Automatic annotation (TrEMBL):
Coiled coil: none annotated. Residues 4-121 form the Response regulatory domain. One of its GO terms (biological process) is regulation of DNA-templated transcription. It comes from the Bacteria. It is found in: Cytoplasm. The keyword Glycoprotein does not apply. GO terms for molecular function: DNA binding. Residues 144-209 form the HTH luxR-type domain. Pfam families: GerE, Response_reg. The modification 4-aspartylphosphate is found at D55. GO terms for cellular component: cytoplasm. CDD domains: LuxR_C_like, REC_NarL-like. This is DNA-binding response regulator, NarL/FixJ family, contains REC and HTH domains. The lineage of its organism: Bacteria, Bacillati, Bacillota, Bacilli, Bacillales.
Length: 211
């Protein structure tokens, strides 16, 4: 089954380069191209891609606002991988908080980009080391110790499995519980840790040695 990708970037040359390379991958299909964030939101609604390669700085609507809109409407049904030239915390943190599951820089090697795409679609995280460092620093500064103690033993078990990149079905199988129970535990984890997605929860787990 093909991975359907929408490319959102305001530079034609960048889009053409990505299309040219990704089309060489047997399991990847280019669903469409958007030249700004607003167009990405519209095409996401119409084309329902599996993943969007999203630039940050675009006219009309930037990548962060577009990500917020897309995640609000489609949730985990559409994964977003930020592909940008900016590695500072003023861009990384808002992008992840908006709902991007991955963050990579445009100087990434083509093969590494494909690996990142596949990782995201399999439930794993895909963050450039600089992005990871910014997020871990943010967590260490803002997360009070009591948050970790708020988790039950079972929630810690679920969080540890989630950090391995496992799907809800795989977590349920590993812990001998139902998928519905897994979803409930994950919802509780997000609430107690005050995070909004699996990427942030996994980073929290790594920071506090729960992985």
């Amino acid at each position: 089954m093909s991975i359907r990708i929408l490319i959102a970037d305001d530079h034609h040359v960048v889009r053409r380069g990505l299309v040219f390379f990704l089309k060489t991958q047997k399991d990847i299909e280019i669903a469409g191209e958007a030249k700004n964030g607003a167009e990405a939101v519209q095409l996401a609604e119409r084309l329902k891609p599996d993943l969007i390669l999203m630039d940050l700085m675009m006219p009309v609507m930037d990548g962060i606002e577009a990500t917020k809109e897309i995640k609000k409407k489609h949730g985990d049904a559409i994964q977003i991988l930020m592909l940008t030239s900016f590695s500072d915390q003023n861009h990384v943190i808002p992008a992840i908080e908006a709902g991007a599951a991955g963050y990579q820089l445009k100087d990434i090697e083509p093969d590494e980009l494909v690996a990142s795409i596949r990782k995201l679609l399999s439930g794993e995280n895909s963050l450039h080391p600089k992005a990871t460092n910014h997020l871990l620093t943010r967590i260490s500064k803002q997360d009070p110790p009591h948050k970790i103690h708020a988790l039950t033993k079972r929630e810690k078990d679920v969080l540890a499995e989630l950090t391995k990149g496992k799907s809800n079905k795989e977590i349920a199988s590993s812990l001998f519980i139902t998928e519905k129970t897994v979803k409930t535990h994950i919802s509780n984890i997000f609430s107690k840790l005050e995070v909004s997605d699996r990427t942030q929860a996994a980073l929290y787990a790594v920071k506090h040695n729960l992985a």
